[in-house]
Amino acid sequence: MANLTGKTAVVTGSTSGIGLAYARAFASAGANIVINGMGVPADIEKERAAIESDFKVKAIHSPADMTKPAEIAEMIALGEKTYGSVDILVNNAGIQFVSPIEEFPIEKWDAIIAINLSSAFHGIRAAVPGMKKRGWGRIINTASAHSLVASPFKSAYVSAKHGIAGLTKTVALEVATHKITCNCISPGYVWTPLVEKQIPDTMKARGLTKEQVIHDVLLAAQPTKEFVTSEQVAALALFLCGDDAAQITGTNLSIDGGWTAE
Ligand code: NAD
Question: Which domain holds residue 206?
């Protein structure tokens, strides 16, 4: 396992789901953590404190809103000021909205592009100078099977995720000689609040029951017929932070139960 003692990881959208699993995995390897995301303050504090007590590292919460470029830069600066460096940046915050394109609300398109794509640009832009100065860095973007294939009614999400796959490759090439790697991870369906919340809209858009959405829409895409777990995604991210992954860069790593093999 990667030893991340003395390193700092910033994980966007880590008050829930996959992001929280990343934060806990990096903490288990010794990294200090900046968690980020929305939620009930008492719940966020509980997760933050649990990271500190479970893994004997430091953890702080940045309330940066991923739609606000200045707040994203402040989040990176907060990590650097608090711990002296930001060595690992995981761009993970994301939202979903499901609707036929002709009814797709314009503000939902703008929010998805901002949170799921542009926030990664702003975070990377702010973190790369420090990584270059120290000669080490790991940038991991949570993409999705939807960075490789599309599904109907998810125009903004699929566009943002295809975009992040391109951003990943571009950044990897730019920082390749600085011992900084940049990769994206593309999960299939992971049972998190993001997936649970889209079920009612998918029921409406496709005229299906909840059971039908789970089995005929979500798991239909996954040959294994099982959800991916957040912990499996986090374990892959942790591997990317180790020395064994130093030559893995610019890739899009699928963890999707065979979805994109079809
Ligand atoms: P989730 O809803 O459990 O977590 C999303 C996180 O993003 C939360 O911490 C939330 O507070 C945060 N967030 C949302 N808007 C924000 C904003 N404006 N500013 C700051 N933080 C914000 O979802 P998840 O399933 O864990 O998704 C995490 C990432 O994984 C997303 O990028 C998602 O697209 C991707 N993904 C998820 C799945 C899946 O099946 N769950 C599959 C592929 C990819």
Answer: 192-227
> CATH no. for residue 147?
3.40.50.720
- For residue 4, report the distance from its CA to the centre of ligand 1, in Å: 24
Cα angle 87, 239, 27 (rounded to 5 degrees) comes to 55
Whether 14 and 143 map to the same domain: the answer is yes
DSSP state of 217: I
Q: Is the CB of 38 under 6 A from ligand 1?
A: yes
Q: Which of 22, 83, 157, 189 is catalytic?
A: 157
For residue 157, indicate whether it is catalytic.
Answer: yes
Distance of CA 184 to CAs 67, 92, 138, Å? 20, 10, 11
Each residue's pLDDT tens digit in the chain (262 positions)? 789 999 999 999 999 999 999 999 999 999 999 999 999 999 999 999 999 999 999 999 999 999 999 999 999 999 999 999 999 999 999 999 999 999 999 999 999 999 999 999 999 999 999 999 999 999 999 999 999 999 999 999 999 999 999 999 999 999 999 999 999 999 999 999 888 888 998 899 899 999 999 989 889 989 999 999 999 999 999 999 999 999 999 999 999 999 999 9
Establish if 260 belongs to a structural domain.
no
- Nearest atom in ligand 1 to 21's CA: 26
Contact between residue 27 and residue 54 where contact means Cβ atoms under 8 Å apart: yes
Could you identify the residue written with the tokens 């919460």?
61
Q: Is 195 in the pocket of ligand 1 (CB under 6 A)?
A: yes
